[in-house]
Design brief:
single chain; about 500 residues; mainly alpha; two-stranded antiparallel ribbon; 2 strands; about 0% strand; globular
Length: about 500
C-alpha cells in the first residue's frame, strides 16, 4: 500500500477542555480518545467516498468525549466507523505528490493531494503555531485572491472543513488543525461569488448600523429576488439547487445583504462573542423552527450543519488575533447561512412553532419514580430537568450529527438559557434596519412571527425534537437512518409525509 511522506509529528494531546466538559471524563478516556484521534489522522482520508462524503470519525470521538463517554465506548465508535474509511493515500501515484511553499496552490481542489497537504500543513502548524498557520493559509488576502479562495473552501462541503479545524482549536489538538487545513485545501470552493471578504479596517459602505442576523434573515424572506425556484423538484440534487441559488440576480442580492452586516472590528471580545451568540440562535431556529403547524417536525440535514458549525465560532475568535480576519469569518458564515437556507427552498423560521414544543422532553421509556422521601416529584414537569436524560441517551446514538447537534444546544442552554422572552438579539426590528419597525401603534415589531415570545428555552425544546426525531436509542427506540432531505422550504415538500 502506498504511504504518504511521514508528516511532522504534532502534539496530538487534548490541551484544552471542551466547551461542554460533561462529568465522566477521566484520564483513561482522555488517553484513549487522543490515541484514536491520532490513528485516524495518520491513516484515513477526509473523504470516505470519492464523491466528497466526509470522514466524521474525529467529530464523533470528540463529541462523545465532551459528553462524558467512556474509553470502551470510543473503541466501539472507532471499530464501526473506521471500516468505511479510505486510506490517506488513495492511489500509488498519489504518494509522489509533494506539497511545499512554492506549489501549495497548484493542488487546491485535488482530493488525491490530501495526504501531501496533511504533511505540508503539519510542518506549517509546527513552524508557525495553529493561529498563525490559519491566518497565513486561510485568512490572508493572498490565500483568497486569484481563485485560491481558501476561506470559501473552509466554508464549503456543508461546512465540514471549518468543523474539523474548529475541533482542533477547541480542544487544543494541533494534529486536527493540520487535518482541517488539508481538508480545506482539497475542497472545491462552493459559490465563491456570494462571499464578501473585506481585508481592510474600513467598514463596507452598505453597512446597516445595528442590524442583526435575524433581521437579515427577515430580509432574505422578504426579497422577491430570492424567491425559491419553481417548480419544486423533489429529486433535485443539492448541487442542482445551489446552481439555481447563484444565478446573477440572486448573487447580487445576497452580497448586498452580507455587506450590510454590522461588525465593529474594534469591539473586542464582547462584539465577536455576541455575534457568535446571534448565529447560534439563528442556526437553532433554522433547524428546529422551520416545520409546519399541524405537521410532524422535520430536521433538515443541511440546516443541521449550521447548528453544529456555529459552536466553533468562539474557538476561532480565541485563536485568531486579527479582528479583520474575525470579521471576515462572520461574513463568510452569514453567506453560508443564506446560501444553505436558499438551497432548502427558503424555509421560514417560526419561533412560535418552536416555543409550542415541550421544554421538558422525556425519553419514551423514562420511568423515573420519586420515593416518598424525595423532595419534589420527578414525574412532574415542573420538577424535572430534561438535560441529564438527553445527554445520557445522545452519547449512544450511531449518527455523529446527533451528538454534535446536542452539544451545540447544550452550549446554547448553558450560556443563553436565561434569556427572557423578547430579549434575544434581533427579536424585534431595529429602526435602522430598513424594515418597517413601527406597527403604527407604538409597539415594537417582531422580526419573525413569535420572536417576541421566544426565550432561552428554545435550546432544550430543539434538543427534545432532535431526540424524538432521530431516536432515543438508549431507551429502546431504533435510530432514524437519516435527516430530512426533502428541501422543506418548498410547500410542495410537505404534501406527503416522508416518514
Amino acid at each position: 500500500m502506498a504511504t504518504v511522506t511521514t508528516p511532522t509529528r504534532l502534539s496530538y494531546n487534548l490541551a484544552r477542555k471542551g466547551q461542554i466538559n460533561t462529568p465522566g471524563i477521566t484520564a483513561a478516556s482522555k488517553k484513549a480518545v487522543e490515541e484514536l484521534l491520532l490513528t485516524d489522522a495518520e491513516k484515513h482520508h477526509c473523504y470516505f467516498r470519492s464523491a466528497g462524503l466526509h470522514n466524521h470519525l474525529s467529530h464523533h470521538l470528540l463529541a462523545a468525549y465532551d459528553l462524558g463517554a467512556t474509553a470502551s465506548h470510543f473503541k466501539k465508535v472507532y471499530d464501526v466507523e473506521s471500516k468505511i474509511q479510505r486510506p490517506i493515500v488513495l492511489e500509488e501515484r498519489d504518494s509522489t505528490i509533494a506539497v511545499n511553499d512554492d506549489n501549495w496552490i497548484q493542488y487546491l481542489g485535488n482530493q488525491h493531494a490530501y495526504g501531501a497537504y496533511f504533511s505540508f500543513f503539519s510542518e506549517k502548524v509546527a513552524e508557525l503555531g495553529p493561529s498563525s498557520a490559519l491566518q497565513a493559509f486561510v485568512f490572508d488576502q493572498s490565500s483568497n485572491d486569484h481563485g485560491n479562495e481558501m476561506l470559501v473552501r473552509m466554508m464549503s462541503g456543508a461546512l465540514h472543513p471549518i468543523i474539523q479545524i474548529g475541533y482542533g482549536l477547541e480542544f487544543g489538538n494541533d494534529t486536527l488543525v493540520a487535518t482541517g487545513l488539508a481538508q480545506t485545501a482539497i475542497h472545491h470552493a462552493t459559490a465563491p461569488e456570494v462571499y464578501c471578504h473585506n481585508f481592510t479596517t474600513e467598514p463596507s459602505p452598505n453597512v446597516v448600523p445595528g442590524i442583526s442576523v435575524l433581521e437579515i434573515l427577515r430580509k432574505v424572506y422578504d426579497s422577491e429576488a430570492l424567491h425559491p425556484v419553481m417548480p419544486y423538484d423533489p429529486n433535485a440534487l443539492f448541487s442542482t439547487r445551489l446552481r439555481h441559488v447563484v444565478e446573477p440576480h440572486r448573487v447580487k442580492e445576497i452580497r448586498a445583504l452580507v455587506s450590510s452586516f454590522d461588525i465593529d472590528i474594534k469591539g473586542g471580545e464582547k462584539e465577536f462573542s455576541s455575534k457568535a451568540e446571534e448565529f447560534i440562535w439563528a442556526a437553532t431556529l433554522l433547524m428546529a423552527a422551520t416545520g409546519k403547524q399541524g405537521k410532524k417536525p422535520r430536521l433538515d440535514f443541511f440546516l443541521m450543519h449550521l447548528v453544529t458549525s456555529s459552536l466553533f465560532l468562539n474557538p476561532f475568535f480565541n485563536a485568531l488575533e486579527n479582528p479583520v480576519s474575525k470579521a471576515n469569518l462572520l461574513r463568510a458564515f452569514l453567506s453560508s447561512v443564506i446560501l444553505l437556507t436558499l438551497s432548502r427552498g427558503r424555509p421560514r423560521i417560526d419561533p412560535e412553532l418552536l416555543m409550542s414544543y415541550t421544554a421538558t422532553p422525556r425519553p419514551p421509556q423514562g420511568r423515573l419514580t420519586s420515593s416518598r422521601s424525595a423532595l419534589g416529584k420527578v414525574e412532574e414537569d415542573s420538577d424535572y430537568n430534561p438535560w441529564p436524560a438527553i445527554l445520557q441517551d445522545a452519547v449512544y446514538h450511531p449518527d455523529a450529527h446527533v451528538l454534535k447537534t446536542i452539544r451545540t444546544l447544550v452550549y446554547g442552554a448553558t450560556h443563553y438559557g436565561t434569556t427572557p422572552a423578547g430579549k434575544a438579539a434581533g427579536a424585534f426590528l431595529n429602526s435602522s434596519s430598513g424594515l418597517k419597525a413601527d406597527s403604527g401603534t407604538g409597539q415594537e415589531v417582531e422580526s419573525h412571527h413569535g420572536a417576541g415570545k421566544m426565550d432561552g428555552t428554545i435550546f432544550v425544546r430543539a434538543a427534545g425534537i432532535v431526540m424524538d426525531y432521530m431516536g432515543w436509542v438508549a431507551n429502546g427506540q431504533e435510530a432514524r437512518p437519516d435527516w430530512d432531505r426533502s428541501a422543506l422550504g418548498w410547500d410542495e415538500a410537505w404534501e406527503k409525509d416522508v416518514d
